[in-house]
Amino acid sequence: MDQVNQLQAFKQHVESYVLFNADEWLELEKYLTYIQLKKKDYFVEKGKVCQYFGFIAAGSVRYFNIRNDGEEITNFFSFANELVSSYKSFVKQQPSIIYVQALEDTSLVCISHSNIQKLTEHPLLAHKMERFGRLVAEYYLCCYEDRVQAFITQSPEERYVELLKDGQDVLQRIPQHYVANYLGVTPVSLSRIRKRIFIPAK
Amino acid sequence: MDQVNQLQAFKQHVESYVLFNADEWLELEKYLTYIQLKKKDYFVEKGKVCQYFGFIAAGSVRYFNIRNDGEEITNFFSFANELVSSYKSFVKQQPSIIYVQALEDTSLVCISHSNIQKLTEHPLLAHKMERFGRLVAEYYLCCYEDRVQAFITQSPEERYVELLKDGQDVLQRIPQHYVANYLGVTPVSLSRIRKRIFIPAK
DNA sequence: TTAAAACGTTAACAAAAGATAAGTAATTTA
DNA sequence: TAAATTACTTATCTTTTGTTAACGTTTTAA
User: Fold this and answer.
1) CB–CB contact B142 A87 (8 Å)
2) Which of A21, A151, B79, B97 is the most exposed place for a label (fewest CB within 10 A)?
3) Which residue of chain A comes nearest to B145, CA vs CA?
4) How far apart, in whole angstroms, are the C-alpha atoms of residue A71 and residue A177?
5) Interval A166-198: pLDDT, tens
6) Is B149's CB within 8 Å of A181's CB?
7) Is A13 exposed, middle or buried (0-12, 13-18, 19+ CB in 10 A)?
């Protein structure tokens, strides 16, 4: 995917939050950074400060942690036309507690933290950029609200069934043990859940 | 607690995000609503649109859900000097999926949704209000990020031990079965966890 | 103040999940 | 392409959790 198309996709996504006119876009474009990740490249590594806030024009990423025993624990995924960052690390400019890694070759349109600072002080763009930042945070906040709600009110099996409903395409692209972590269970347990669901007891 | 003190506490909290000068405060104050809740009064009810975004000057609230079988499931708590709203409902102006109820008599400094709209278009205050909104959303997003992380990487027992560390005072004020829900386990299970922790096997 | 309701603990049993290991299939990569 | 690695399932055993019910205590409300 070339930069023109990446920018196009980025614009479309941003405008689902806030509308910018042509002049504003010309100015905003100066602050964008294009980043290409190959499969397994890191967008952020644990212990390092997340420098960019990214939009996935193409590809996908996985957010994970490494336990003391070396096991990788997957928290989350982001796909094309979604945003990506180690949010807390980016916002607070503190070392990330997670890794964010490309699941496949991935094209990103990014804004660095220092450019975000400049944009939120920019005479022409400040107001809309603040609003954009707020709406993005609110969007993800609502996602997390749902996710916490699910952990509290649903069993792992129910969470998996729910995920099957609105994430068929997603599930097919992701190794199952990553999904298991995402649901908060072990891969072995997810395998049993699948067995229970697909081959009901006679 | 009288309104002067409530406003004082509110100002202090807001200024931990964004600084407003005296003139700005005088203007902003026009948009505030003071709400008193008696114990067990609702701040928001399920199915109704959350009209206010509130700051708890004194008191505390509990966020909960009612399951099909009538059981109440507690999601979250907010205490004095914290913000409260059914975030998703307030932001999207759609019916709340949860109840928010006062755990004790509670004094709130609130801004209505329509006033938030006016403030984010206000010639004097817009920029700072947008920033305030963004920083608040980011703050809560980080809280949720931690909470989801805890569900994925920790056992209920570990989550409880963690909660004991930084929430001693909180735990003493809240019925234990509310805490159990918050941790994602049943009250019976939390009782067993407590037994395991406090009376270690000989 | 007394009766009713709500709380927390414990017990007993069933269901589910974790840990470990083994075995097969699929994918990677040298 | 062959060897190595990774992924998924299955089995066994242990631990934890859920469910239901009982019991004494505390709190609430009539």
Assistant:
1) yes
2) A21
3) A144
4) 11
5) 777 778 889 999 999 999 999 999 999 999 987
6) no
7) middle
For position A169, what pLDDT does the model report?
75
Contact B102, B60 (CB under 8 A): yes
Is the CB of residue A81 less than 8 Å from the CB of residue A9? yes
Measured over the CA atoms of residue A53, residue A59, residue A63 and residue A67, the dihedral's sign is negative
Average pLDDT across chain B, whole number: 91
Question: Is B141 within 8 Å of chain A by CB?
Answer: yes
DSSP calls for B151-173: HHHS-HHHHHHHHHHHHHHHHHH
Query: In angstroms, how far is CA B66 from the centroid of its own chain?
Result: 18
User: Mind listing the domains of chain A with CATH numbers?
Assistant: 3-119 (2.60.120.10)
d(CA B120, CA A133): 14
Cβ of residue A60 closer than 8 Å to a chain B Cβ: no
Token output for B140: 């809560």
DSSP class of residue B188?
A: H
What length is written for chain B? 202
Q: Give the nearest partner residue to A137 out of B76, B138, B146, using CB atoms.
A: B138
Question: Given an 8 Å threshold on Cβ–Cβ distance, is A152 in contact with B181?
Answer: yes
Distance CA B111, CA B94 (A): 17
- Which amino acid residue lies closest to nucleotide C27, measuring CA to C1'? A175
